[in-house]
Amino acid sequence: MNGKKLNIGLFGFGTVGSGLYDVLKRIGSKNVEIKRICVRDLSKKRSIEAEFTNNPDDIFNDPNINFIVELIDDADAAYTIVKRALQMELPVVSGNKKMLAHHIEELIELQARYNVALLYDASACGSIPVIRNLEEYYDNDLLTSVKGILNGSSNFILSKIFNEKMSYADALKLAQDLGFAESNPTLDIDGWDSLFKLIIITIHAFGLYVAPEKIFTYGISNMSDEDIRFANEKERRFKLVAHVEKLEGNKLIMCVMPQLISRNKYIYSVEDEFNGVVIKGLFYDKQFMFGRGAGGYPTGSAVLSDITACLYDYKYEYKKRNDSQLPEYTTDHSFRVYYRYQDYADLNLLKFESVSENYISDDYKYVVGRVSLSELHKVQDELRKRNVFIAAYPND
Questions:
Q1: Class of domain 6-120
Q2: Known catalytic residue: 197?
Q3: For the chain, N or C: smaller number of CB within 10 Å?
Q4: What are the mean pLDDT values of the chain's consecutive 10-residue runs (396 residues total)?
Q5: What CATH topology corresponds to 134-295+326-392?
Q6: What is the pTM of this model?
Q7: SS3 for the chain, per residue?
């Protein structure tokens, strides 16, 4: 693509699509231009003068369009668009993390078969270039873990609870009013958005693809005032953390769940809609990346970074996928948790390996003890349905 102008066919004109359009207008790029925009609803009033269509064929059959940008919510439609673009040997940028988390292995094969680039740095952490860094800088075996706050909406809610003493319900409503959380916030607060991003990050960090249904995922929607009081008494805060770590024996663990974070941790201070990622290695200890994880302009500018990388024929090389010994995913790993429950049927849901703290009163019961990821994964659907709350409780 060197020296060539990118004429973009854009799918989706929501928060990120319009953010990208504004960013391009503001910088006045001469070699990147949005030619056509495909939207679902043509009757919707829009304040810009651009060529809109609701038929994908108008973009794919336009001989002047040589680049596709997909920024829509619908994962199935996004998959169709991205696959079609690759098969037509059109480079494509995608922001749909749910689609990528389910289809990334097939899309990696298509990129190789048609010798064309699919970039998606904006899908993982908004403005933080975590994927590009994992590809370029951490492309060796020294990496041991990646963990962090990958969802701005849930982090905004937790910030308001712990900094401004808001109730969970009020903090959620404020996040919705400000546009940080959807009217149906399940994807964010129940951990699914973080899970999809974790799967994408893991492919680049460790070369291994793990399907979403194999990973323990639990969010903050069951959190109560008692849980918040417990965190405050321990001088900690709940953060919704996505975590992948390489253990001895080339084993890999992954999970998304609330964690009781102490003051001395980097992510303790990640506030509001920001994301924070801690990358840990054998010899360089910890490195911390921090930035806006949501919003039209931060994510739009990350999409632009992917677009301009294609001007220089940049592709992900998936270097870790070529390792002769990929790590093996396991749930055979135990760690300390805080578990608030209502009755003994809830308590018996989990098999604790050991219990270090046990509190019982008429209206509040909890245990602190060690439990395995395999145990948690077995009962994760039940944990969501019941009036219980669980969080990882690291020793430090």
A1: alpha beta
A2: yes
A3: C
A4: 81 92 89 94 86 96 97 96 98 96 98 97 86 85 92 94 93 86 85 97 96 98 95 97 96 98 95 94 88 81 91 91 88 98 95 97 96 98 96 95
A5: Dihydrodipicolinate Reductase; domain 2 (3.30.360)
A6: 0.95
A7: CCCCCEEEEEECCCHHHHHHHHHHHHHCCCCEEEEEEECCCCCCCCCCCCCEECCHHHHHCCCCCCEEEECCCCHHHHHHHHHHHHHCCCCEEECCHHHHHHHHHHHHHHHHHHCCCEECCHHHHCCCCHHHHHHHCCCCCCEEEEEEECCHHHHHHHHHHHHHCCCHHHHHHHHHHCCCCCCCCHHHHCCHHHHHHHHHHHHHHHCCCCCHHHCEECCCCCCCHHHHHHHHHCCEEEEEEEEEEEECCCEEEEEEEEEEEECCCHHHHCCCCEEEEEEEECCCEEEEEEEECCCHHHHHHHHHHHHHHHHCCCCCCCHHHHCCCCCEECCCCEEEEEEEECCHHHHCCCCCCEEEEEEECCCCEEEEEEEEHHHHHHCHHHHHHCCCEEEECCCC
